[in-house]
Amino acid sequence: MMKLRLLLLLLGIQGSVYSQKAKVAAGTLVRIDSFLSNYIGTKKIDIWLPPGYPSAGPYDVLYLQDGQMLFDSTVTWNKQEWQADETAAGLQAKGSVRPFLIVGIWNGGTLRRAEYFPQGAVGSISRPLRDSLLAEMASPPLADRYLSFLVHELKPYVDRKLATNPGRTHTFIGGSSMGGLISLYALCRYPQVFGGAACLSTHWPGSIKHLHSPIPDVLVRFFSKQLPPAGRHLLYFDHGNQTLDSLYPPLQARADRMFRGKGFRAPFLQSHFFPGTAHTERAWAARLPAVLMFLFGRERK
């Protein structure tokens, strides 16, 4: 308890915002129950600190979408999690990766699709498909405001309160499904902030009602114009072929051709196919070591 109080003082957090329900198997999790934003209202934030923090600082930072699904399966809707704390702590203990911490941003519930769909691409979708897509969002598109919150409010807070290295080559963003789309969008919108994006089981259809529509083509064309120049940013993609992931093999192949056409190659681009895997947190947890090795398993200046 004394260690927790010291961490809360270090973060400048009043004890009332820490939730005793925030539990991890390794390291320490500090939960901000109500992070106030001028862009999107309030957000719940989980900040995971590796064992020994802050002795190995300065730390790289990984910002992950759907923060409620990362650490504790006892409180998730499907009783699954990414096992982010166990995996990150294990790799750091072995010295396989640079020291890093994780910031998990809880999704907006019914507003998740409005926050995660790449807003700049909406105008390129023809009607009536666009109108139907917008109807799924329960709100006007919020992705640009969401990214403003991340870049102009949350990241400065994290860098101010914690022992981080705030530079682009030490700051990464990631997520799965729609979280993959918004992570790629974040890299394109703020290439000076994020050094790489990890996009697991990226939901290229962008919709829950129109799984076979022109939206993937619109998104691929949009990102082809928005990507930063190749050679300075890391891109990680993966997908399976079961449940919702069964839609993704041809769509990810199309996106991969676009990335290669824009000059992205190894070691800056990885795209993996995991046959027999589904659209679940268990699948993403199994892939997380490879993701973290790709982002943090090399020296950066």
What does this structure look like?
With 301 residues, the chain is α/β, with parallel strands linked by helices. It has a single domain, classed as Alpha/Beta hydrolase fold, catalytic domain (Rossmann fold). 36% of the residues lie in helices and 17% in strands. It contains nine helices and eight strands. The chain has an eight-stranded mixed beta sheet, with helices on both faces. The radius of gyration is 18 Å and the shape is globular. The protein starts with a helix and ends in a 5-residue tail after the last helix.
Question: What labels describe this entry?
Answer:
globular, 36% helix, alpha/beta, 301 residues, 9 helices
Mean pLDDT: 93
Number of domains: 1
User: What is the CA-CA span between the terminal residues?
Assistant: 36 Å
* CATH topology description: Rossmann fold
Point out poorly predicted stretches.
none
CATH superfamily: Alpha/Beta hydrolase fold, catalytic domain
Any idea of the CATH class? Alpha Beta
Task: Name the helicity range.
Answer: 25-40%
Major sheet strand order: 1-2-4-3-5-6-7-8
As a percent range, the share of strand residues is 15-25%
Label the CATH architecture. 3-Layer(aba) Sandwich
Shape: globular
Total number of beta strands: 8
Largest sheet: 8 strands, mixed
Helix and strand content put the structural class at alpha/beta
